[in-house]
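Schema walk-through. Below, the input block comes first and the output block second. Nothing else is stored per chain. Lengths vary across the set, and this one has 144 residues.
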Amino acid sequence: MKKVFSRVSLNDMTMVADFLATLAEKRAVFAFYGPMGSGKTTLIGKMIRIMLQQELDVTSPTFALINVYEAAKPVYHFDCYRIEKPEEALNAGIEEMLYSNAVCLIEWPEKIEALLPKNLITITLSSSDDESFRHIEINIPDHD
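--- output ---
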């Protein structure tokens, strides 16, 4: 299934985050694709706040690699931008986290493609020419 949100401002991303948070009740791994500044961290932050029902300061774990949010179902926020070799992801324990019962939200998933499960949900963000709006395409596999 494919779901598309067009002309979404950064402030209006809550409706997209709400949709994704609903999917997180059944699915666990979400891969966020898009260039730097496309709104990946903003969307993930809104999604985490909705899932945890808390007003949190969510930042991208660019240097830490992983931020963990404790809940009944843990939430792992990965930023794989700085990963250069798959071994780095393995050494950080990412593979175990991807196949755990946690919700995994991954920025720059192309850096760890070989480790990703087949049934992940992909979210692709792109910006309008003036960067005021986002086009967001969500692909949800038909199988579990």
